[in-house]
Structure formats: C-alpha cells, structure tokens
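General statements about sequence and structure are easier to judge against a single worked case. Part of our work consisted of pairing the sequence of a single chain with a tokenised description of its backbone. The amino acid sequence and the backbone structure tokens for this protein are reproduced below.

***
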Amino acid sequence: MLIEIDFDSDEAIYVQLCNQIIMGIAASVIHEGDSLPSVRQLADRIGVNMHTVNKAYSVLKREGYISLDKRRGAVIALDIDKLEQLEEMRRELRIVLARGCCKNISRQEVHDLVDEIFDAYSAGMER
C-alpha cells in the first residue's frame, strides 16, 4: 500500500495516515487480517517520527480498524459495529452537507458524488 503524506497540509500527519489506511481498506487494497508495517518501518518509509505512526495506529485501534498484536504487529481487524458507524457518518455528513448547501450544491450533485466514490471503492481503487 502506497502512503502519500502532504507535509504542507493543515491536516495532522497522523490523521492523514489514518485516513489513507481507512481508504486502503475501503478500496480493498488492504484486507481483514493483513499486517501493516511496524511503526519503525512505516515511519522510516514515509519520513515521519515513530510517535506519529504510533498515534495513528492507536487511533485506528480505538476506532476498530486494527488490532495490535505483539507477534504480528498492527493487523487489519474491522470490528466497528455497523449502527455505531452509521451514527458517526450521520454526524459527519450533517456538517459536510450543511457546507454544501451554503455553496448551493444540489441534492443530485451530492448523490452523483456519493455514487462516484462508492463506484471507485467497489472497483478496488480510490480516487
């Protein structure tokens, strides 16, 4: 899996890392049971501090995307309850949709965008 960090972004590096791993799961680039690189390996590969990778892995564990195993390291383990995830999506979408309404983005444009994103994940690729 290719991780691309935008060091000029206002978004924290650990958040970018979390998001890229989640998008990799959604795009079927990484699967349930796959091991992620060790904290040290990933930090060296993308040129960040080990604490940054450790924080990302901790967040992913807390959110139910990975488990941490002493022998296998960080392993993709999707255990988020669907109802919890739907509620979280509802909270986040309220803000995103409010912003879109303020910019006169139509319901159809939102639906088209959602379909485009789902289609990309279904095809096994992330845009």
